[in-house]
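Researcher: Re-running this chain for the archive, since the previous output was lost when a drive failed. Same request as before.
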Amino acid sequence: MNRFVLPAAMLVAAMPFTAAAAPAAKPISFGAAERHAAKQGVRADEIKIKGSTIEVEGRDNRNRRVELLLDRRTGEVLDRRFDD
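Model: Regenerated structure tokens:
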């Protein structure tokens, strides 16, 4: 049983270092946010950074006012709202 304790303790001790070594993803640029909006059919009029999200205001292909909320790191669409 003792021969398993030391290797297990070494694995546990190394875990925080491996997790900390992974670099954090960089936030997407305004240009990338505009491209993500365009993929959703939205022409961006205004782009705002709000914490960990990016808010894109614009119009869709039917000329409706649209607000997209994007994840600042991935560009994933988190929310889509139509303003009348």
